[in-house]
Predict the 3D structure of the following.
Amino acid sequence: MAKINFGGVDENVVTREEFTLEKAREVLAGETIAVIGYGVQGPGQALNLKDNGFRVIVGQRPGKTYDKAVADGWVPGVDLFGIEEACEKGTIIQYLVSDAAQIAVWPVVKKHLTTGKALYFSHGFGITYNDRTGIVPPKDVDVIMVAPKGSGTSLRRLFLQGRGVNSSYAVYQDATGHALERTLALGIGVGSGYLFETDFKREVYSDLTGERGTLMGAIQGILSAQYEVLREHGHSPSEAFNETVEELTQSLMPLFAEKGMDWMYANCSTTAQRGALDWMGPFHDATKPVFEKLYARVASGEEAQVSIDANSKPDYRKGLEEELKALRESELWRTGAVVRKLRPEEIDR
């Protein structure tokens, strides 16, 4: 484990060069990794572990997701089972169903958490809010976490490209004396770029804030607000979309992903630089109170309860699809669908 300085603060970081894939295989030799849930994180983590040479089985209820697992090459009765059978067979149970589903499935999982097994999460929700979820593991099992900082789809895509998604890691309970080794081996096995240390509470607080904030909620709110202002002042849909979304995602994001915001600024016109530097303060001041309110709701458990209540309803998928449909059919994103088709992917020269 190395100390790396992040902006003046030393943090514990584990790299693939330090904790090699070969070492990870040695640590997990003889283990059976049962990936419970094949929805968002399950496919990427399970397939990456399998391709990296680990013993992996999948536990999934019958239905469309089960059929997807079969289509991905998992064989019923060989490495694809029902949830209970997979939990029984696994020495490491990767609990990757949704947060709401974790509450419903927990009695089945808990029954098969025998001494020495490991219970693995990719999100701190169930443990941190256990007064609301009821997820309290027995004392004689390891409770660990590897949380990739990206979707399961991105984790798989980058793995196939020979790259990786950075992940946080944490040990909540070390019953065997080998919990940390197991955690790091699994982190390398799922294809992490590097692993940085956290704990379950910090992970879920930052994750819920990020999802509701700059990663998803805030960005959609800001994009739609700018688009609406431009449209209300007579700009065409294509002009409003290009100035709001397309230039951001296709031109500017790659620049600041490459070398930082200052690099992106330096590669824009002096007029753009001046305006950005002048206006970042007002936007910061306007939005920071919203982020403070958001973080307070996350820390109090209010946001967790909203998620539990909404996602536990029998018809939650129907309601979710209606909300996503409204987003998809808004002028902003219908315009986006047309713009994406017009992108010059290949230009004859």
